[in-house]
């Protein structure tokens, strides 16, 4: 559930450039959004500019340079109504960043922004990967199929398609420099399990209408990927690993008998309007406001936005699909998750998973686990609040990685 962080996700500055002499090199700063901070990096060269939002995995975004001199710069993008104006003083570019009526101070200092992400895999890799594409109607999805270490094509192995959380994500589900899906794919490949991870429609190298897409559309995209995996005839069991909204999609796929197993990482077990109500209560308390919104207020606010994804999200009840799950399911949540609260969602999931006559899960291999001290990204944390995500060097708990691999291998 990354929608709370998407205020600058849609930035896509179009290319242009003029003015030759002036400020040059790499400059970086942070936008203070109150509940979190977002890093912005500008690359100035020969009067041209590109921009990075590394916290959100967006790099080399072309920007329109309106003016640049030895001590001033002005960058804009008309379609997104985004601008930056700054003046060099005492070794810093001091200025303001604005978008759609929101104006925030943004001071830049020389140099790039480097975050320590020790779990991010680095080559050379002991396994093979293959770049693939598959289609769902007008959407073309691009992804990476990772084969297990030592795989020779003669023995069939398990494979899992990886489905990301809300907000447009690339195939690594990149956020704040973390690449959790890449970390998971690498870990599983070294333990005999293949994966397919792909860019969401409208993100990365994938094409398709994202503005009007709902969770059902993203589910259909995943089904197209599953069909591609089935057509290869290289795999014995084909499952899904879904995070957050992706966990919700995992429930949908299982109830439709599209997968042999599912792994839900912080998948919601209650209706979307309840999720947003809890998120808003958490945000207000953190900001020191005593008011408590109602579910009706949340729904009225969402409906007024006329956003297809949000309209579907607040009305969708995952229990409709959870009650139909008969395949092995691994349900994992972090106790300190403030976006999909384990204390609310996990008991509801447990209660509604189908059971046999003796009260056991319909699949005896189904397992539910809540990890203490882990947040929505399954990082060890202090508070679980979203602003901690980028401050933590760990991308995903080793215990969670180990549990996923061991569970799939035992199927």
What does this structure look like?
By secondary structure, the protein is of the alpha/beta class. The chain folds into two domains: 3-110, Beta Barrel (Lipocalin), CATH 2.40.128; 129-270 and 317-410, Alpha/Beta hydrolase fold, catalytic domain (Rossmann fold). The chain contains nine helices and 16 strands.
- N to C succession of SSEs: EEEEEEEEEEEHEHEHEHHHHEHEH
- Count of discrete alpha- or pi-helical segments spanning 4 or more residues: 9
**Quick check: average pLDDT?**
91
Round the Cα radius of gyration to an integer and report it.
Answer: 22 Å
Overall 3D shape = globular
Tell how many strands the DSSP assignment holds.
Answer: 16
Please give the domain count. Answer: 2
Which segments are poorly predicted (pLDDT under 50) over 5 or more consecutive residues? 2-20
Q: Using the coordinates shown, work out and report the CATH topology of the largest domain.
A: Rossmann fold
Class derived from helix and strand content = alpha/beta
Properties at a glance:
eight-stranded antiparallel beta barrel, disordered N terminus, 411 residues, Rossmann fold, 2 domains
In short:
By secondary structure, this protein is of the alpha/beta class.
